[in-house]
Write a structure and sequence with these properties.
Helices cover 71% and strands 0% of the residues. By secondary structure, the chain is mainly alpha-helical.
Amino acid sequence: PGRGEPAFARALVAMKRYQLDEARKALADWKASGAAGTQDPGRFAAMLEAETEATIASRLFGDVLLGDDPTAEVLLAQASLALHAFDYRSALKFAERAVGEQQSLVPARVIAVRARALLGETDAALAAARTLEPELQGEDRFLIADVLATAQREAAVREELLRLREMPGMAAAADARLGGLALGQGDLDEAD
């Protein structure tokens, strides 16, 4: 087996059994083995989350793997875990720290916008999302619509989705979201 693999396996088993102290110790052993230095923080955080609840993954990642001087990528991974664990204040804090380390880190800026929206800071989230819009790709292109949806501004969400529908390559995804919006409002004809 590779360096640290037994300790990492112990950590995974302990996480699945909700034995946080044992998982924390095993992850610390794994980190001390030097194996942690070879991992991509984002992929590693996603793998931890796939193996256990987001709350546990977030707590253990923060306790053991964050370290004293984390890189922007490590802070981004912690922000993502915190967001998935519904810890929006921590998600915002870590996302902002990641952006402080690397201003061009778009995923961290997206997490900060989503966390602000979920904390009820709609105006600040919308302003940041609009500033960020030219840099968004994939599902993140719906960031403004998502912020508006979080604030339960259905008419504005619909308007934003109609705008996005006109953009190249966005029609199918925008139509799917428009259908979901109509369904949520009980408009079965429009949802169809």
